[in-house]
Amino acid sequence: MNYALISLTAPLVSALLLVFLGYMSGRKHTGLWVLGGSVVSLVSAALALQSAMQAGLPQTINLGGWAEDLGISLRLSSLSALLLVFTAFIHLLVGTYARFSRHAPHQDFWMLSAFLHASLNALWLSADLFNLYITLELIGLAAVAMVALSGARAYKAASDYLLLSLAASLIYLLGVVLIYAQYQTLNLVHLASISSDNTLTRLALVLMTAALMLKGALWPLHLWLPAAHASAPTAVSALLSGIVVKAPLFILWLIWTELAPPELAKQVGPAVAAAGMIALSAAGWSAMRTPYIKVLVAYSTIAQLGYALMALGLLMSWQLPQLHIALWLFVIAHGLAKTSLFLAAGEMQGTLGTKRLSGLRGATQTVPVAMFAFAVAGGSLIGLPPSGGFLAKWVLLEPMLNQPQYWPWALGVLLGTLVSAAYIFRVVALSFDRARINPPDRQPDRAGHWLALLPALLVWGMALIGNQLILILAGGGI
Amino acid sequence: MTPELLIDLILALLLLIIAWSALFAPSRNDAMAMFIAFGVAVALIWARLGAPDLALAEAAIGAGLTGVLFLNAARQLPESGRTTTPRKSTIKAAVFVLLSVSLFFLMLTGPVGEQLTSPVSDTRIVEAMPDAGVSYPVTAVLLNFRAWDTLLELLVLLLALSGARQLYTSSHISKAPQVAAWPLLTGWTQILAPLLVIIGGYLLWSGSKAPGGAFQAGALIASAAVTLRIVGILPPLRWSFWLTRAVISVGAIVFLMVAIATSLFAEGWLNYPVELSAGIIITIEIFATLSIALTLALLIVGDHEDLRT
Question: Where are the transmembrane segments (chain A) (predicted)?
Answer without folding.
Answer: 6-24, 31-52, 72-97, 109-126, 132-149, 161-183, 203-224, 236-256, 268-288, 295-319, 325-345, 366-386, 406-429, 450-474
